[in-house]
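Example 273.
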Amino acid sequence: MLAERVKGLKYLIYQMDVEPANPEKNRQKVKDWIEKQVPLHQPDTIILPEMWNTGYALDQLDDGADDDGKETLELLQPLAKKHGVHIIGGSVANRRNDGIYNSSMIIRNDGELIHEYDKVHLVPMLDEHKFLQGGQAGGAIFELDGIKMGLVICYDLRFPELMRSIALQGAEVIHVVAQWPESRRTHWRYLQHARAIENECYVISANSAGICNDTQFAGESLVIEPNGDLVVEGSPKKEETIQFTIDLDKVKDMRERIPVFSDRVPNLYKMDQ
Ligand SMILES: NC(=O)CCC(=O)C(=O)O
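Predicted structure in complex with LYUYDEPV:
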């Protein structure tokens, strides 16, 4: 059944202080947050940060990772259905047959899992290659309430080709779920503004806010409009709930005013492939 396209969507971001290597505590935190905040604010959609089950305790993933999404889905699917809310499920450390992935799950407000995406680009600065497998499918693209949307995971934000390919498939909103360190917070902010401007779409991010192995995560979850303006931001380094509503007419207006998609000349762009 085709969902009717809505004009505005009400969101809540959970800028979570993730407890390293403690999936049970983190699942309880997410459950408590949803049970409290969703009835209070009545959003259409909520978004969680990256690796919210284990945090970046990468050397302890063997104990904490999900078993092919089981633990995350058992938690989030009933909550999505109970509260009638779409869940952009951040990402979790997730064991599949051939190793552990950094996987995102998108759950519709009827409890249906509509999309899964494994982070493609692994972060050399965090030694992710030693502990995680990289996903093999391109960026995530899915539809909620008749709106095409995309999702990338943290370091993926540095690859404009990935987000361009998602926008070229029609995404009007691209979500970024992250555990981005404070030490590179200027990159975090400028890259999101750039991706929103070049793709003329909303960029909505959920970053974590805690500390793991001496790394302080930035918080500063952002919502950027298609013209590059900041709509709202989370506080630095602090757990927080952020609410806002997006206006999808702004995507249409921007794409009509500055027609970068129809002005592209891809046969002149020398890419690797
Ligand atoms: N979790 C991440 O992907 C962190 C990315 C990062 O620190 C960077 O790109 O810089």
